[in-house]
């Protein structure tokens, strides 16, 4: 995308590359220029293999696109001998020494790997409060936390996109401390730059939202995460063999890469042609033509089914809005434990709004919640916060508790913040993007989890007994997506918790369980439409109450459906 420029201080971007990666990094730089609101200033750190002719060639392309570029050669004191201990090129470590390499007048920078594609403005990265660490990055679930011997509550990070305050690093001699670690135990660093950053900061860095570093874990395999937004800010073509120039396999953002690659190629830089799938002998001739025809037909059917699902989704959303206006137009939850919760707009992320406003949403849990209200939780964590129904409802009912809401989707996180302000609890609510195992480790409070099958990756862990023993958990399990996950979690928590299984009631049976006066004149099928939650099938919750009991607090009024 091309963004209008504003006449203010330039954004400073840093790349650390060798000569072989010039062309790919230039694709990234062009994507930066075309997506930012301010003039861009690039700083390329290299080891002397980018010659004067290369620098002039690169400078001409960057200047022709309205930006400026400077080159910085790494000094002789850098521990290049690390290359003897690793398959990684030593240039991956240059980002650790940026305060020493770049001029002293350069403060805030954003570091980008050369295999990134920037698609949106990065103003937030330059305005982000980096705290005492002077570092912001996107966290990543990774077994390296255990391998590196980090505290289990720590989070690992991906170093492909970093916001760095070089002034803070200079004042604290952070770079020198990290470079000293390089050769103290060089065989320890499997992913050198990330490992050293993780050890140096041990979780004490500012988290960026995942849309600023969308890696292969959002695209690869059946367990790929959903995109945090349909229009991510930074695509990171991470993973060997999965970059656009390495494989013909489809990637949703490969076309954008190759469009920019043409501009780099036209400027005289060498770039490989786009890989094509090889056609073998059985993929030619009349048999192949027949197979291709059948493949096209199957694809057309899939496309038609996807279009029909989208139409149905839009129809159901329109029907939900209609029911909200007809039966709950005041946009305030009428009954249940969260009665009085105000919605600033008619928006519900991933679920029906009418049932929430009428107070029957997941009403199977209301007796449980009314019982939990007697417990004095210091912290409440809502994993899969959606638009904030549970997070803000809990903040209202537990006025002394600190509430953390984790929600991967950018739009939903904005809705949580808006609803928190509308209900006056914004000072006690912290909104984060992705929840990691370490975020729950050793906590003492209530954890509510609904992440559409992601509970398998987040909660199933051999360290669960020590990690989760002190908290109560209310988990929506999704055997439809992860067969057997309910039973597995039940077995895992049974040793440290008292576990109760709660069955969900299907939509067509809900009017028989909850009869509302405002729906009395409707037929049973129509009531089922209004109260329905549109679940894909039978499901269950697990209530896991810690065997280390919580103190009680004064009795709270109940608002049952």
From TrEMBL:
Alphabetic keyword roster: Coiled coil, Glycosyltransferase, Metal-binding, Transferase
InterPro entries in UniProt: Glyco_trans_8, Glycosyltrans_8_dom-fam, Nucleotide-diphossugar_trans, SAM-dependent_MTases_sf
Xref: CDD domains: GT8_A4GalT_like
Origin superkingdom: Bacteria
One Pfam family per UniProt: Glyco_transf_8
Coiled-coil residue windows: 290-317
GO molecular function term, any single one: metal ion binding
SUPFAM superfamilies attached to this UniProt entry: Nucleotide-diphospho-sugar transferases (SSF53448), S-adenosyl-L-methionine-dependent methyltransferases (SSF53335)
Protein name stated in the entry: General stress protein A
Provenance organism: Stieleria maiorica
Native organism taxonomy: Bacteria, Pseudomonadati, Planctomycetota, Planctomycetia, Pirellulales
